[in-house]
Amino acid sequence: MTTFHPEAVPGQPPPPDSVPPRDSTAQAPTSVARLNDTIRGFVEKWGSVWVEGEITSWNQRGGNVFGRMKDLATDATISFRIWSSTLQRLPRDLKVGDHIIACVKPDYFPRTGDFSFSVSAMRHVGLGDQLEKLEQLRLALRKEGLFDPSRKKPLPFLPRHIGLITGENSDAEKDVHRNAELRWPHVLIRTKHAAVQGDRCVPETIAALKALDADPEIDVIIIARGGGDPQTLLGFSDERMLRAVAAASTPVVSAIGHENDHPLLDDVADLRASTPTDAAKRVVPDVSEQRALVAQLRARLASRLSQRVGHDIAQLDQLRSRPVLRTPETTLTARAQEIWMRASRGRDLVERDVSLRERRTMELRASLRALSPVATLARGYAIAHIGDGVIVRDAAQAPAGTAMTITVARGSVAARSDGEVEESSTGA
To answer: Where does the OB-fold nucleic acid binding domain start and stop, copy by copy (predicted)?
Structure first.
C-alpha cells in the first residue's frame, strides 16, 4: 500500500519533511527535524517523575546548573538541568556526592538532538528518616552496653606506633602528622587510606581497622576525616563499622569532622576527639611539656629531700644536745651509790637467807636421823625380810625352812628359819 503525500511529485520521492518517521523508507526517508519533533512530542507525553540517586556533577553557569545524577546501585546516569528560577527554591547545600531525590521532566531539544531532564524540585533523601534510624541505633547500642565507659580501653601514655585511618592526601591526614610530630618528633605513624564518604567508606574503613588491629606494633588507632554535612558523615554511624570498632583490641580514637559533628562512632570509640588536630594532641604527649614536668618533679624531689635531711639533722642535733647523751657518764655516776647500796643489801639478804636455810637443813637432818632405822641398827638390832622385801614382824611369817635376808647396820646376811622358838630361849 502506497501512502499519498500531497507535496510529492509523481515518479519522484516525497520531500523528507513530509514523511513521518514511522512511514520512512530508504526511498522516502524522513528529515532530522521531523524526527526530532516526533521524539520531542513523544517525550513530552511522559510528564514529571520522581527519581532517587547521587549527584556526580554540579556545574553552575549563568545562574543555571548543569549536572549528572547516578543510580545508587549501578553505574547508570542521567543529565539534568536546573534553571535559575528553580535553583532559588532548592536547598543551598546541594553538592556532588549528595544522596537526593528530584522531580524531573524529560526535555528533548530538536535543534541539537540533546536529551536531558529539567529539575523542578530536589532535596536530600529522607535525612529526617535517616536521623530517626540513627537515633534508634544509638538507643539499641547503648542498651547493649557499647557506650559504657567501663568497656573503654585506656590510651597508652606514649604510643610506640600510631595507626591512622583517613582519606588519601586529606587535610585530616596532614593535621594528624603535623601536630603529632610537633609534639613528639620521633613519633611513628602507620597510615591506611580509605574512602571517607560514599559506598566505599564503610568496607574500606573496616578493612583498614582490622589490618591495624592485627599489627602487634600498633598501640592506638585514629580514625579521622574533616568536617561535612550529616549526609557525608553517615558512614561513620554505620552499624557494621561501630561493631568492628567495639570488637577491636587496640584503643580507637574517633576524630570525625568538627566540634559540632557527632557520628555514633564518637560514642563507641574509646576516646572522642573534636577534630583530627585534637586527636593528635590527645594521643601524643608534648615533649616540651613532659620535659618541663620532669624538671618540675626533679626540683620538687630535691626540695623535699633537702627538707627531710635538714629536718633529720636538726632532730639529731637536738637529741645529741640533751644531757643524757652529751655526758652519759653523769647518769651512771649519780646512781652509782644507789646501785652499791642495793647490791650490798642484796648480799645481806642472800647471806641471811642462806644461813636460815642451813639451820633448817641441820634440824631436818637430825630429825631424820632420829627417825631413821639406821640408828636402830647401829645399836645392834637387825631387820629380817623375806620374799619381795616383806619385813618379818611375826614369827609365824617365817616357818621352818623359810629363806630370809637379815639386814644389820653394815650389810645383810642370808639365813634360813628353823621355826619359831620359845620366848624363854630367846630371852636367854
So the answer is: 31-123
Contact 81, 64 (CB under 8 A): yes
Which residue carries 591495624 as its cell? 212
Give yes or no for a contact between 20 and 97, defined as CB atoms under 8 angstroms apart: no
* Cα 267 to Cα 265: distance, rounded to the nearest angstrom: 5
Distance CA 114, CA 376 (A): 164
- Relative to beta strand 411-416, strand 403-408 is antiparallel
- For residues 205 and 191, what is the distance between their CA atoms, to the nearest angstrom? 12
* DSSP-assigned beta bridge partners for residue 104: 49, 119
pLDDT tens-digit series, residues 58-87:
999 988 999 999 988 788 889 999 999 999
β-partners of residue 252 are 221
Distance, in Å, from the CA atom of 348 to the CA atom of 343, rounded to the nearest integer, reads 9
* 3-state secondary structure (DSSP) of residue 357: helix
d(CA 22, CA 30): 9
Single out the residue of 230, 236, 161 nearest to residue 204, CA to CA: 236
pTM summary value: 0.47
Residues of the chain with pLDDT under 50: 1-6, 427-428
DSSP character string of 266-282? HHHSSEE-SSHHHHHHH
What are the distances in angstroms from CA 136 to CA 140, 186, 263, 324?
6, 44, 13, 83
Q: What is the DSSP string of 84-102?
A: HHHHTTS-TT--TT-EEEE
